[in-house]
Amino acid sequence: MKTTVIPFFLMLATLWSCKEEPVAETTEIVTLMEATTSWDGAALPPYPEGDPKITILKITIPPGTELAPHIHPVINSGVLLKGELTVTSEQGKTVSLKAGDALVELVHTVHYGKNEGSVPAEIIVFYAGTEGTPTAILDKE
To answer: Does residue 1 surpass a pLDDT of 60?
Structure first.
């Protein structure tokens, strides 16, 4: 009987020591975005095959600047830290962002961004790609 009681108490002690600690009271977790579609409602494509590569860029767009039309061959999302930014697709759909807004960007669709505000627009963009695949390709048309 001793051999069954000791393993039982060891199992209880192990389970008790593995219980999850609560998050500290001062810790705040805010989900900025969860999505399976890009901002225009298109389904995100499957992740590409190959060695994964995560890229995080901070992009600063001066006031009055319009970016060249381009595509993203990989899934990406961003959070606008400062300023304003309007993104327009080749189909004419637009999304207007202000500081604090998050979005899932278009994939394989020509689009461009424009800062129509009076201060630089700063955005952090996270790309989930593969080694050797660029984060953006300029549209040659």
So the answer is: no
